[in-house]
Amino acid sequence: MRIALDAIPLVAAKTGIGHYTDALAEWLARVHKEHQYELISPFDFTFDACNGKPPNLSKRFFPVRSVFRKWWLVGLPAMLQISPLDVFHGTNYCIPVFAPCPTVVTFHDMSLLAQSNTHEAANVTRGKRRIPIMARRASMIIAPSEWTKNEIIKYLGIRPEKIRVIYEAAREKMGPLPLSACQRVIERHQIRRPYLLYVGTIEPRKNLLTLIRAYDELLKTSSHRPQLVLCGGRGWLEGDVFKLVEELRLQDQVRFTGYIEDAELPALYSAAEVFIYPSLYEGFGLPPLEAMACGTPVISSNSSSLPEVVSGAGLMHDPNDYRALTESIVKFLEDAATRDYFKCAGLEQASRFSWERAARETQAIYNEVFEKWRKK
After folding, report:
1. Domains and CATH numbers, the chain
2. What is the mean pLDDT of the chain?
3. Inter-axis angle of helices 336-351 and 322-334, to 10 degrees?
4. Model-level pTM?
5. Is the backbone of residue 52 left (phi > 0), alpha (psi -120 to 50) or beta?
6. What is the DSSP letter of 226?
7. What's the Rg (C-alpha) of the chain?
């Protein structure tokens, strides 16, 4: 079988969807050596075939930037007619509307519809027009959590049997490191221990205003003085986060590192006292899972899909209750037994998620939609 995956998420600095695309493609090729997998994009992207990539995984770059707006309507369907595939997988909400083969699409969340106020208006308008079409045209939809499956049903009216839940997993490189192996990365980013860590885009949906207020409360009501380290690129309306830090006069205590390369994340996770993820809305929630895989105790909000990911392996709180978040931070900082318990619980919880299993379940969907297509 010949299968192509949308590689556009790999073009820019990788965030959650880029990590999903990269890990899924590699594990599909590792597990199913009898099939051929291609990462295709109208934009060039990094693909090091000499650095351990499976031989049945390849890159196809079609330099048609000037017609990118027509890539899904014209460019990609034309390419599929010339070079037929057995299945096309849209890893980032999009598939060609007029495809000469069965299509699978991954909807990572429904935030454009459910949390419209946390996105730019143009993106919301485009998403409201495009996402329902993609849902109807796809042969099958993949959701990363039961929460997201229910959101798809709620907002798009899709039949439950057309949606399959396939959980993601922490990447292989995510594992506990000794402090000696973390020191160089910490120093490079001007981080001082002890520190509290957040990893993700700086944007409204991540609820960083609540985290900063909880941190300010920690400094006012306790003797603890950990640094707060916020790792991630700037997103839409990130100015409110920087403004609150200034208003609370926390510039010397809060460290914004900007985007962090993948290779450095295990060190930052491993050396942190606590990982905090106060997000309002997540389709899955990869950062807390990766923190747990590195043996770091996790605090997260109890909203959306996060209870599925964190479960009882971390402390959870109402995303709007900054005082509850402060109490959880204090508990980890002052109680070594609690901290050690959740380190162990987090490692066990992270081990329950597997990219190998995700690859097998995804290939099973490809097989199913291909067989149905052949019988038409």
Report:
1. 2-169+355-369 (3.40.50.2000), 179-351 (3.40.50.2000)
2. 94
3. 100
4. 0.94
5. left
6. P
7. 21
